[in-house]
Amino acid sequence: MAPSKVKQLLDPTGVSRTVTRLSHEILEKNDGPDNLVLVGIQTRGEPLAKRIQALIRQYTGVEIPLGSVDITFHRDDFREHLVVPQVKGTDLPGSLDNKTVILVDDVLFTGRTVRAAIEVLLTYGRPDKIQLAVLVDRGHREMPIRADFIGKNIPTHEGEHVKVLLKEVDGKDGVQLIAYEEGA
């Protein structure tokens, strides 16, 4: 199916401004950086978590521990895909016990990716809290998952896709809404 229409929702400045706001909200809700751990869901949650970490360091002078989580084998649908998954591995900065983990991802859609990421985190320890920060919430939940920090709410319809571009992965920053036509 070929895209019929692409709409730019955030340009590089908009992405930057949104990540800055998310960083401030994380600090405000948690009364500062103490006891926080940032964990990005691979692939695009990882660079977003690094950006948030850098901004919090800039504001507070505190280096929040940073990790990443690979959910490949925790997805409930990974056996349905015929391609061999590309496994990058989970990298966490020590124990998560008694920490507030901020799980970071680019898009919140059905909630299945977040459920898988939480499952991975709980195999590494027992955090006091797990909070979710997403650049985009597009709705359409299939699981009872909600984000604590949302950069932008983008209600979508069937046949639409939200594409997040990050310079660390894609060479440029942006958020696009892509509409697909039936039978195209």
Largest sheet: 5 strands, parallel
Terminal residue distance: 5 Å
CATH topology name, in short, is Rossmann fold
Instruction: Give the amount of beta strand, in percent.
Output: 25-35%
Mean pLDDT: 90
Query: Going across the major beta sheet, what is the strand order?
Result: 3-2-4-5-6
Structural class: alpha/beta
Count up the domains: 1
Number of beta strands: 8
Q: Could you state the order of secondary-structure elements as H and E?
A: EHEHEEHEEEHE
Name the CATH class.
Alpha Beta
Shape: globular
> What is the name of the CATH architecture?
3-Layer(aba) Sandwich
Helix content: 25-40%
Estimated radius of gyration: 16 Å
Notes on the protein architecture:
The protein has four helices and eight strands, in the order βαβαββαβββαβ. Helices cover 27% and strands 29% of the residues. It has one domain (3-180): Rossmann fold (3-Layer(aba) Sandwich). The chain is an alpha/beta fold. The strands form two sheets. A five-stranded parallel β-sheet has the order 3-2-4-5-6.
